[in-house]
């Protein structure tokens, strides 16, 4: 593999960690008006993300063991971009519907399964495929360590991006747009054709950024950026003990 290929693979691992943590933080903000900023909501999001990531790692390991399995890497990243791009249109409805049908605690888990589950699954599956791409050139141990380091750095970046930039200043739609864009760029860098990458980002067009507030064609969850803290849930979850 050329140096450009190694850099692209490292960027893919970075983007996978960046996007999954950014999406977790953004999903917490999106679900707050329905479930509140409580330990129950964050427990549902984090636990669900870890469960789907475990499944994704298992799938990625199986794919990476196949002779041509690493070719699935750009498609997994493209799928993650599509999932992130759809949230501005579907996220609020999913959260409200889950709370109405299942109640506060099960609803938070159900909404998390639909919002963070699919992207966490495909982004986690990308990690073993990054190792499979690098291992023939630098060895399995070095490849695993390098991918883990890139993924951890990406996770730090995604967390800081969502907490300190996207939520206070860009709004949720802008935050999800950049999370989708990072995944799409990684997909392009690892071999995805421009047309599928563009189709993955299509739900964000034409009004990705909050330049036309109140427009009928804007995503239904558009809202002005704010630094106001959520004081609590509209309906508090029952005490567990």
UniProtKB/TrEMBL annotation:
Does the UniProt entry include the keyword Transmembrane?
yes
Q: Does the keyword Repeat apply?
A: no
Family annotation (InterPro entries): MFS_trans_sf
- Where is this chain compositionally biased, Low complexity type? 217-231
**Ranges annotated as spanning the membrane:** 38-60, 72-91, 111-134, 146-167, 173-192
Region Disordered: list its residue ranges: 212-241
Q: Which UniProt keywords apply?
A: Membrane, Transmembrane, Transmembrane helix
This chain belongs to the protein called Major facilitator superfamily (MFS) profile domain-containing protein
The organism's lineage is: Bacteria, Pseudomonadati, Pseudomonadota, Alphaproteobacteria, Acetobacterales
């Amino acid at each position: 593999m050329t140096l450009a290929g190694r850099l692209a693979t490292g960027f893919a691992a970075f983007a996978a960690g960046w996007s999954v943590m950014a999406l977790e933080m953004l999903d917490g903000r999106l679900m707050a008006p329905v479930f509140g900023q409580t330990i129950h909501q964050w427990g549902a999001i984090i636990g669900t993300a870890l469960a789907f990531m475990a499944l994704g790692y298992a799938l990625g390991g199986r794919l990476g063991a196949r002779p041509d399995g690493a070719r699935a890497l750009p498609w997994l990243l493209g799928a993650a971009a599509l999932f992130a791009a759809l949230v501005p249109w579907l996220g609020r409805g999913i959260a409200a519907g889950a709370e109405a049908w299942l109640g506060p605690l099960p609803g938070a888990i159900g909404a998390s399964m639909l919002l963070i589950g699919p992207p966490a699954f495909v982004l986690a599956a990308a990690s073993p495929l990054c190792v499979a791409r690098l291992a023939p050139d630098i060895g399995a141990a070095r490849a695993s360590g390098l991918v883990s380091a890139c993924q951890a750095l990406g996770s730090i970046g995604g967390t800081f991006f969502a907490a300190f930039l996207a939520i206070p200043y860009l709004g949720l739609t802008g935050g999800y747009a950049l999370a989708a864009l990072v995944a799409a760029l990684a997909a392009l860098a690892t071999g995805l054709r421009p047309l599928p990458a563009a189709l993955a980002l299509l739900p964000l067009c034409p009004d990705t950024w909050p330049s036309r507030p109140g427009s009928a064609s804007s995503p239904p969850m558009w809202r002005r950026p704010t630094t106001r803290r959520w004081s609590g849930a509209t309906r508090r979850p029952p005490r567990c003990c």
